[in-house]
Design brief:
Order of helices and strands: HHHEEHEHEHHEEEHEEEEEEE
Largest sheet: 6 strands, mixed
Strand content: 15-25%
Number of helices: 8
Strand order of the largest sheet: 1-14-2-3-4-5
Helix content: 10-25%
Number of strands: 14
Radius of gyration: 19 Å
């Protein structure tokens, strides 16, 4: 999430929320909101654990989902190291990464990030997708943070795909993999800057259980067919939440509908929207703890 990712006019907070925020600013409480407590919350993380059934599974599956690392701006190697150690301690069968892995422009590989990701331990592998900030890191678009747009951004995307593969991370862009006789996973391109194709990502799944990773949950209403489970990031849970009001801003055309937690997409497809691990815009969080999501999935 970045400043230019703020909600479009249809998702601007309602009038009562705007009045509340004006009062907050007028009272000076906003300064407190941006104080040390909210910065500290950005650098803490927890592990959220859920148990669900997944149609098509023949044996249980332990899955770790990490998203929105935002390495390079406010998040650095020591932060990633803590996340990797916590993930390995959970002993997952597979690790899925939900995009926005990087948040800075570099001409070389993000060596410290890759060094830590290479330490992930999962017998079925590590797979991920790109997010909108990854596209900024490719040079697909330019701004004050990323610099000028790069005409060779597609080459840069491919170079980074190869670099991540060298660290054991397979980036899926509208493609899938069959991990077990009973399990197929797919990953789609970023909704904002790519061309996501869920059907292509899940082609060949047959009767196997299906998992789909999309960085942006706004894809959910447009699914053309049911999916066993969709995993999403992007929203950071709003990053700053207040009691009763919830998230102040969510980078989604659907407002707070897909801000975080368990939601449903088209065809009643179950989906989980993670609060993510990193931050963007400002290094602040409030009532929105960064999370590693552990899912124990059992046969239906």
């Amino acid at each position: 999430m970045r400043v230019s990712d703020l909600p479009k006019p249809s998702t601007v907070p309602n009038s009562s929320r705007r009045r509340f925020l004006r009062g907050l600013l007028g009272s000076g409480a906003a300064l407190g909101l941006l104080g040390g407590a909210t910065v500290a919350q950005s650098y803490l993380h927890g592990v959220t654990r859920h148990t669900r059934t997944l149609p098509g599974l023949q044996a249980p599956l332990r899955l770790a989902f990490l998203t929105d690392l935002h390495y390079g701006l406010f998040m650095h190697e020591n932060n990633v190291q803590q996340w990797i150690e916590a993930t390995n301690a959970e002993r997952p069968d597979v690790v899925l990464l939900g995009g926005d892995l990087m948040d800075y422009r570099t001409d070389g590989p993000p060596t410290p990030l890759l060094r830590q990701l290479e330490r992930l331990q999962a017998p079925l592998g590590v797979y991920g997708v790109w997010g909108n900030h990854d596209y900024g890191s490719f040079g697909y678009y330019g701004n004050r943070h990323y610099g000028s747009k790069r005409p060779d951004w597609q080459n840069r995307r491919e170079e980074l795909r190869v670099a991540f593969a060298g660290a054991g991370v397979t980036l899926l862009r509208n493609e899938g993999r069959t991990l077990r006789a009973d399990l197929h996973i797919g990953g789609v391109d970023d909704l904002w800057h790519g061309q996501p194709d869920a059907a292509a990502a899940l082609a060949g799944a047959g009767s196997r259980a299906t998992l789909l990773v999309t960085h942006n949950p706004d894809l959910l209403p447009d699914l053309l067919a049911p999916v066993g489970l969709v995993l999403c990031g992007h929203t950071h849970g709003g990053q700053v939440r207040l009691p009763l009001l919830g998230a102040l801003m969510v980078p989604s055309r659907y407002g707070q509908k897909y801000a975080m937690g368990w939601v449903a997409g088209a065809h009643e497809t179950p989906a989980y929207v993670s609060r993510g691990l990193g931050v963007s815009g400002l290094p602040v969080r409030n009532l929105c703890t960064p999370e590693i999501t552990m899912l124990t999935l059992n046969p239906a």
